[in-house]
Each structure stands twice: as C-alpha cells, then as structure tokens.
Amino acid sequence: MNNDSMKIPQATAKRLPLYYRFIQNLHSSGKQRVSSAELSEAVKVDSATIRRDFSYFGALGKKGYGYNVSYLLSFFRKTLDQDEVTNVALIGVGNLGTAFLNYNFLKNNNTKIQVAFDVEESKVNTKIGDVPIYHMDDLEKTLADLHVPVAILTIPQTAAQTITDRLVAADIKGILNFTPARLNVPPEIRVHHIDLAIELQSLVYFLKNYPD
Ligand code: ATP
C-alpha cells in the first residue's frame, strides 16, 4: 500500500478488496457511475459505512449521481498495488493447501503463490498447478531468492509456531494463518487468522440464536 492509504482506518482497509472486485465488474460491464445504495446491495455493507469509507480516500459521491466508476477503479488499483504482483509462499501441501494451489489467487488480484513447501518426500519436487513444491529444508534459501513477503499456513497446528519463527527470521512480513494456532510474532509482522471451524461454528450459533 502507498503512504496515502496509511491514514485509512483498518476496518475500511479490510473492505477495499471487496469494493475493488465489485467495481472491476461494473467497469467491465461498461457502467460509468454507481450509487452507494447499489454498492451496498451488491457487497452487503450498509450504505452509511460505504459513504464513510469512500470519504477517507476523497471519493465524494454527488447526490443523484453517485460515484464515478473509473475514478474508483484507478484509486483501488493504485491503493491495492494491483500493478505489482506480490509473491506468496504456501506452507503445508495437505488437503487445504492443495486446494489453494489449484485455485491460486490471480483470478482475483495480483497475488500469486509462487512456491510451496512440505516435509513429505512424496510431495517434494512435484508441482501442483504451476507451483513447485520444495522441502522445508530449503525454506530460507528459496524465500530469499524469490523475494516472498507473504506466507499462507496450511500445516498442522502443532507445527505452526516453529514454522512461523522460521518465516519471521526469513523476513516474511505477513502471514495468512489457516491453522487454529494463535501465533506469537514481533509487532511489525502482520498475521491474519482464518479459522474455518470457528467461522462455521459461529454461523451455526447465529442461526440458532438469532433466527431472524
Ligand atoms: P493430508 O491428507 O495430505 O495429510 P491434511 O490437510 O489432512 O492433508 P495435515 O496433517 O493438516 O494434513 O497436514 C497438512 C500438510 O502439512 C501435509 O501435507 C503435511 O505433510 C504437511 N506438514 C506437516 N508438518 C509439516 C512441517 N513441519 N513443515 C511443513 N509441512 C508440514
């Protein structure tokens, strides 16, 4: 992200990729403007929040006109660094890891899993999609050679902290953690935690307790 975007609150920053995806679709369908009500309906964020989010980056919608789609698109592209590919490493080529390698993320934005690591000999030196799988012994050297700032963790929980410590020492800046482990990292390292089991449990809890 560039320096201007540093002033955007974190909750707003987290919604930017969501807005970006929708604005891209609008732009490719030839639409030139969009109202906050239309955006709200499409991305399921209330329109007051959208107006506040957009005001942070100077996109001031006009009453009865809405927002200019090209302006929004160029803002998001610049802010989310869409002109630059960010290299990502995936650690742990099990069921979930394999699914991510097949999916990769280029379809959505310019992040690309360039390399994966595992300890299992039968997986090492193979490829999934076009992503090569290396042995964990080669982690530090490979990350340094490829300039990888982001890692996805799809290893067993028990291995998560040890591997995180190695990633931090190898100069990784951000970790997307799919293991249930809560990771200890220095303050300058950013960890986003996605626990699918917890998300599912909380969804079921809400269905039961807040049925309307
Ligand atoms: P699978 O069915 O392939 O075992 P899984 O997702 O059920 O997949 P997990 O036990 O969660 O299996 O392990 C995920 C992957 O992490 C496996 O491919 C495993 O070989 C790998 N793995 C386990 N320990 C480590 C480690 N210390 N470093 C790197 N990879 C590891």
TrEMBL record:
NAD(+) binds at residues 92-97. Residues 18-57 bind DNA. GO terms for molecular function: DNA binding; DNA-binding transcription factor activity. GO terms for biological process: negative regulation of DNA-templated transcription; response to redox state. It holds the Pfam family Put_DNA-bind_N. Keywords: Cytoplasm, DNA-binding, NAD, Repressor, Transcription, Transcription regulation. Transmembrane segments: none annotated. It is found in: Cytoplasm. GO terms for cellular component: cytoplasm. The keyword RNA-binding does not apply. It comes from the Bacteria. Residues 81-182 form the CoA-binding domain. The keyword Amino-acid biosynthesis does not apply. NCBIfam families: PRK05472.1-3, PRK05472.1-5, PRK05472.2-3, PRK05472.2-4, PRK05472.2-5. Belongs to the transcriptional regulatory Rex family. PANTHER family: REDOX-SENSING TRANSCRIPTIONAL REPRESSOR REX, REDOX-SENSING TRANSCRIPTIONAL REPRESSOR REX 1. Homodimer. Modulates transcription in response to changes in cellular NADH/NAD(+) redox state. This is Redox-sensing transcriptional repressor Rex.
